[in-house]
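Structure first, sequence second, as always.
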C-alpha cells in the first residue's frame, strides 16, 4: 500500500484526506518517501493539535473547592450553613451562609509515555495526541518524559515549547526497547521536586520489563493516573495507579482514547 501511495499522486491525496488518516499515518509513515513523509507529518501534527483543542474545550474544571463562610459563589453547603445558624443565631443569614469557593492552584504535572517496540503503529499516535492535549490544557508547569529501556526528558516543566515542536520531538523518538516504568516515574517525579502538588499521567501498553518494581516511586506522587493499552495486563497496571492514589483507564479501542484523556484530567 505504501509503495502505491509513493507512486500515485491521486492516492496521496486520498491518503491525506482519509478520515482515518492518523491511523494510516502511524502504520505507513516509516515506508513513505521522504518528501511525502514530511508532508504527512505536518498534516498529522495540525490534525492532532486540532483534536487536542477540541478535547480541552470539553470543560475540565480547574482548582480545588474550599468551604468559606459568606456569599462567594452559588455552591452552597446546606449542612454547614445550618450548623453556622445554630452556633451563631444572631448573625445575618448572609454571614451564616457556607459556600464552596474554587481556588486556582499551581501544581506540577508530568506525562510519561511508553515508546518501546510494542507501541509501534497507532498507539504512538495516541500517545502524541495525549501529549498535545496536555500541552494545550496546562500551557505551563508541565513536563514530558518518554521511556523504553532508557528514559528521555522530552520537555522539562520550565521549558516553553510550541506544540508542533513538541510533537516533532515525540515523532522523532525511535520505537524500540523494553519498558522501564520505574525509571520513567523517577525522572518525572524529579521534575516536580519544586511543586507542593504533584500530578502524573503514565501511558503504557505493558508491564515493567526493565528497571525496578515501580510501586515505591509511584507512591511518591500526589496523584498518578494511568492510561494503558493492550497487551498490558490491566490488573497489573492497576496496581501502579493504586500505589499513586490515581485512576486507571484501559483503552482497548482507539476511539476510547479521547474520553480516557478527559477522565484522567478530571480525576485530579
Amino acid at each position: 500500500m505504501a509503495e502505491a501511495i509513493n507512486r500515485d499522486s491521486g492516492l496521496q491525496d486520498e491518503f491525506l484526506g482519509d478520515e482515518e488518516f492518523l491511523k494510516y499515518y502511524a502504520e505507513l509513515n516509516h515506508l513513505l518517501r521522504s518528501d511525502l513523509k514530511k508532508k504527512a507529518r505536518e498534516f498529522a501534527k495540525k490534525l492532532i493539535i486540532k483534536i487536542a483543542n477540541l478535547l480541552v474545550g470539553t470543560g475540565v474544571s480547574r482548582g480545588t473547592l474550599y468551604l468559606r463562610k459568606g456569599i462567594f459563589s452559588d455552591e452552597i453547603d446546606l449542612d454547614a450553613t445550618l450548623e453556622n445558624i445554630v452556633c451563631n443565631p444572631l448573625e445575618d443569614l448572609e454571614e451564616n451562609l457556607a459556600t464552596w469557593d474554587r481556588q486556582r492552584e499551581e501544581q506540577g504535572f508530568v506525562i510519561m509515555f511508553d515508546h518501546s517496540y510494542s507501541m509501534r503503529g497507532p498507539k504512538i499516535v495516541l500517545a502524541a495526541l495525549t501529549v498535545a492535549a496536555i500541552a494545550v490544557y496546562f500551557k505551563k508547569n508541565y513536563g514530558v518524559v518518554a521511556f523504553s529501556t532508557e528514559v528521555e526528558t522530552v520537555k522539562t516543566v520550565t521549558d516553553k515549547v510550541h506544540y508542533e515542536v513538541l510533537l516533532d520531538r515525540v515523532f522523532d523518538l525511535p520505537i524500540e526497547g523494553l519498558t522501564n516504568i520505574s525509571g520513567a516515574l523517577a525522572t518525572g517525579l524529579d521534575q516536580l521536586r519544586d511543586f507542593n502538588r504533584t500530578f502524573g499521567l503514565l501511558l503504557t501498553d505493558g508491564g515493567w520489563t526493565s528497571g525496578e518494581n515501580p510501586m515505591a516511586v509511584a507512591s511518591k506522587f500526589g496523584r498518578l493516573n494511568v492510561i494503558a493499552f493492550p497487551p498490558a495486563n490491566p490488573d497489573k497496571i492497576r496496581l501502579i495507579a493504586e500505589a499513586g492514589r490515581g485512576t486507571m483507564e484501559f483503552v482497548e479501542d482507539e476511539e476510547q482514547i479521547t474520553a480516557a484523556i478527559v477522565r484522567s484530567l478530571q480525576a485530579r
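Margin note: Strands lie at 64-69, 98-103, 108-114, 142-147, 151-155, 198-204, 223-228, 248-250.
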